[in-house]
Design goal:
Strand order of the largest sheet: 8-7-2-1-13-14
Distance between the termini: 44 Å
Number of helices: 4
Low-confidence stretches: none
Helix content: under 10%
Structural class: mainly beta
Radius of gyration: 21 Å
Mean pLDDT: 85
Length: about 425
């Protein structure tokens, strides 16, 4: 169970280093830089919580942000603190009940090599604490680097190890508020944290199979066209692991951002998907088009499903009462076919295993025993543009009435 202050406030997501193989520009000023660091808190309770006066602390930086008076967090809502919004930038929008702040703190807070994140409640003299990248748990009540911290404060819980980060990606709970962590997904400041829903048909060499019936060892068809449009003949991969998570009615009512995105039949172009496809908001779909090629120099890129809701026939489905989400894990990131449409498998590289909950990590290590001694970082199977550029890409398709799946990418299927 996640460590929580005030009966429900948890540390939900951390963006440690915005620049890497992919970049994340939190304030959307056009440059991913250290000021784009952010921390997201989540109200996991079913009650309104006043977080006014809560303090964020860091070793050597002391108290770097305090929530102002009137900071009221509704059930299921988030509070996101961006370290330093730059000129020309702006805060993430968030939902109607979310809170978003610019800490306006000019010095770097999150140490890329490892650090502690401390959230302190002066009213109750309590704090929660998270570590990442192998850092040991500090004692802010007596340890160095926490000048002015209460010497009588008590820690709620034992402290949480968020695992290791991958530059350009955030460490986030999956699902929101859970004990499971992922570190290889696009950051989601003030948005729900990633997958397929039950009933989705996945393409295999023997034909489409429901995702809930797939098991480790099954062969799955992968996308057969490379970034330059070349045909690939070796387009079958063996499934290594299937991870499943159920989100019930109460969770959906508390946190509507866990609702899936519905991509109606044919909405992507070329009569795809063949049937309605439901995925989580941050699950990425393949965009293959001349517009993508002009913008990014490659024909194919990956775009989060929530970005596609600007297009006709793609929307957040508010009518579902519960949803089962599935992650399909392969030896590397793959493009697979769901309801005939190209989309991503779960992006888990060896390095990202450190961010998983202990039990989930052990399961994956059983499948990849070599990762116990060797853990190279893997790159996404296709480029992942920043959120702002994803939005521009989808805008251009919408304004020009162009399908996001060009027929060239389907010739080898």
């Amino acid at each position: 169970m996640a460590d929580a202050l005030l009966g429900g406030i948890v540390i939900n997501e951390l963006l440690i280093d915005p620049s890497g193989a992919v970049h994340f520009d939190t304030d959307r000023n056009g440059v991913a830089r250290s000021g784009d660091e952010f921390i997201e808190l989540l109200n996991t309770s079913q009650s309104v919580i006043d977080i006014s006066g809560l303090e964020l602390w860091d070793a050597q930086r002391d108290n770097w942000f305090t929530f102002p008076p009137g900071s009221i967090l509704e059930p299921g809502a988030r509070a996101t603190i961006v370290r330093n919004v730059q000129n020309g930038g702006s805060l993430p929008s968030g939902g109607a009940d979310d809170l978003v702040f610019d800490a306006d703190f000019s010095r770097g807070v999150f140490n890329n090599s490892g650090d502690n994140v401390v959230l302190y409640d002066p009213s109750n003299d309590e704090f929660i604490q998270a570590t990442y990248n192998g850092d040991v748990l500090d004692d802010p009540t007596s340890g160095p680097g926490y000048a002015g911290f209460s010497s009588t404060a008590s820690r709620v819980g034992a402290g949480e190890d968020f695992g290791s980060d991958i530059d350009g990606f955030s460490i986030q709970r999956f699902v929101d508020g859970s004990d499971n962590f992922s570190n290889d997904q696009t950051p989601t400041p003030s948005a729900s944290n990633i997958c397929f829903t039950s009933g989705t048909f996945i393409e295999t060499p023997s034909g489409p199979h429901p995702v809930e019936r797939l098991v480790a060892g099954n062969a799955v068809q992968t996308h057969a066209v490379g970034q330059n449009g070349e045909a690939q003949t070796d387009n079958v991969r063996m499934l290594v692991k299937v991870l499943r998570s159920r989100v019930g009615r109460k969770q959906l009512e508390m946190n509507p951002k866990l609702l899936p995105v519905r991509i109606t039949a044919g909405a992507l172009g070329n009569d795809l998907p063949r049937r309605d496809l439901l995925v989580s908001r941050q699950h990425r779909m393949l965009v293959s088009s001349k517009i993508a090629e002009r913008m990014f120099g490659v024909f194919e890129v990956l775009v989060a499903a929530i970005r596609l809701t600007q297009l006709p026939g793609i929307y957040v489905d508010f009518d579902v009462e519960s949803v089962d989400y599935f992650h399909l894990l392969f030896e590397k990131h793959e493009i697979i076919m769901a309801e005939g449409a190209p989309t991503e498998s779960f992006f888990v590289g060896p390095e990202s295993l450190r961010a998983l909950h202990r039990d989930a990590k052990l399961e994956v290590l059983d499948c990849f025993p070599e990762l116990r001694t060797h853990s190279p970082m893997t790159l996404p199977v296709r480029p992942i543009p920043t959120g702002h550029r994803q939005k521009r890409l989808v805008d251009r398709h919408r304004k020009n009435a162009k399908a996001i799946l060009h027929s060239q990418s389907l010739l080898a299927e």
